[in-house]
Each structure stands twice: as structure tokens, then as C-alpha cells.
Amino acid sequence: MGMKPQSFCQMMWPGKAFWNRSIDRSAGPELMGSLGIVTGTPSSAVEGSLLSSLEGVLFPKLVLHGNTRWVLPLAIYHRTNLRSGLSFCPLCMREGETYFRKTWRLSLFTSCQVHECELLDRCSRCTCPMQPHRIEMGNRSAYSNRPLYFCSNCDSDLRVGELKSVNKLLALHEASFGRAMKYPNSGTLDSFSLLAHVLLLLTSQRPRLQTFRRIVANENRCSLIARWERDENSTIYFDGMSVSDRRSFLGTACWLLEDWPGKFVDIAQKSDLRNSDLTRDYKNAPAWYLQAVQNVGPH
Predict the structure, then answer these.
(1) Among residues 91, 179, 87, which one has the least CA distance to residue 131?
(2) What span, in angstroms and rounded, lies between the C-alpha atoms of 8 and 258?
(3) Maximum Cα–Cα distance across the chain
(4) CA 7/CA 172 separation, integer angstroms
């Protein structure tokens, strides 16, 4: 509408704080309803843009104040994103009107299904996270006509840069994630919870799991799994990683779940894990998972 986001929101919702929180997580019915009216967007489409639309599919309940599984953390501080909580495809941003896909806010997706290239999560020039709301922020005299594909920090065109082809197998898995989200069934939430649990096993620093990680890394030829160490100041594991690291861990987790439960149980046995090692920190584990690992451990 020819206005900066800050000016538009101040006009529409005076006194309401926007840029110190995740809008797709925190927006309420009143805000979304008025946004739908002023933009001429059906209420179903407006509600579908919120992360809460994935409740019961990716996660049981969206956490409004804290981290939610599969949602990339933004770590907002003074209207600035400290983490890369929004990925993007440069080729998608070259075609037609620029907009950001909901899947680009999720740690599950590391590639573009349309263009078969890897997603990016930072400006390739200055490494600043994607922050479209900060374009021309602080420049009172500027008219807001800058497209959303410019870096808010160094003004680089984010559509330009070297693109890498996707890992075909991982891309197939991610395509299946998209289909499961679009057409969920009674077992969808449990399937995603298992994937999250396997990623937790691969990123955990528990001594009992070190052999498990090493064997997985050797058999899948992914050295990052064996050498990865969590930032001591962070309680975020997979969801807080860079998109390149998520690619490695997600691909390994999918590999580990192939031929379920054969490969998973076999490596757990080789690692001398106990049943309790595989069920710890797995709240509301599906019955079929508990059955699959019940005999793991010394006999």
C-alpha cells in the first residue's frame, strides 16, 4: 500500500506492539479479522497463514511465549531477529509477486520443492537474517517502495547468488512432509513426534548416546553428527541450527527411520543402549514406538 510496515500497523492498530514478537505466532482473532477486511483476503486464508493452523498436525499446541517444535526461533530483540527464523528460495522470489511461504518458517524444510534448490536463511553477503519488516527502518524520509527481496542490513538483492542443487532423497522426504501437512490423518502427529525424537537422540549430549551418534555418523557417512556440540548458552537443538546443519541432521534422521523399525533398533542394539535410553524425554510416545523398542537392551 505504499507504506512502511511500521506506519501501516500504527495506522491500523494504534498502540499495539508488533515487531517485538512473532506475528504469525501471536496474532489474535481481532487483528487477523481486520487484516482480512482491509486486504480483501478470505478469513480461511488469513487463519491458514498462522502457525496455529498446524496444531494437531506438527505439534499438539502452539506455544505463544517460548519455543514450539518445528518452528524456527526468531530470537527478537528490540525489533531485530537475532536468529535465522525465516528461510527463503531466491528463485521463488524472482517469480511474480514476492511473498514468504509458511513452510519457510519451519525447520522441517531445507529445500524448495518447486525449483529443486537449497533454501537459504541469511544474506550471502553480510550473513544477516531475513528481516523484511526492517527494510528502510530508521530512514524517515524514504518512501517504502523497496521490494521484500532486498537485505534489510546491506541492501543486497537476495535473489542473486550461487544456488546449490538439493539432495534428491532428502527432497523426497520433505515433499512427503508437505503432503502429510496438507492431508493429515490420525497418525500424522505421532509420525512427526517420532522424527522429532530421533533428532533429539542425534543432538543430545548425554554420554549414553555418544556411541549411538558415532555409529550413525559412520554408517551414514555424516561426520557432523559425531562432532556436533550444542551451544552452551542455548537450550534449542535442531530448530535453532543453520539451514545447512539442519539439512545434515534431517537427512540422517530420515535415513535412520527407513525400514522402520529394523535399522533404528539394530543400531540401538549395536550402541548398547537400553530401553530407557530410547524412551527418556519422549512424552506421550505412541504405543507402536514403545513396542518397537521394548526389547532393546541387555538380555
Answers:
(1) 87
(2) 49
(3) 74
(4) 42
In whole angstroms, give the CA distance from residue 28 to residue 50. 10
pLDDT value of position 231? 64
Rounded Cα distance between 183 and 199, Å, is 24
Closest CA to 5 of 35, 28, 41: 35
Average pLDDT, the chain: 89
Name which of 287, 207, 222 is nearest 254 in CA terms: 222
Q: Answer whether residue 289 is part of any domain.
A: yes
CA–CA separation, 285 vs 296, rounded Å? 16
Cβ atoms of 285 and 235 within 8 Å: the answer is: no
Q: Which domain holds residue 222?
A: 184-293
CA distance 56 to 76: 26
Residue 124 resides in a domain:
no
pLDDT for 94-119, tens place per residue? 887 888 999 999 999 999 999 999 99
| Total count of domains within the chain | 1
Q: How many CB atoms lie within 10 A of CB 31?
A: 17
Q: What is the pTM of this model?
A: 0.91
Cβ–Cβ < 8 Å for 270, 209: no
Q: Give the other-Cβ count within 10 Å of 187's Cβ.
A: 12
For the chain, give the number of residues: 299
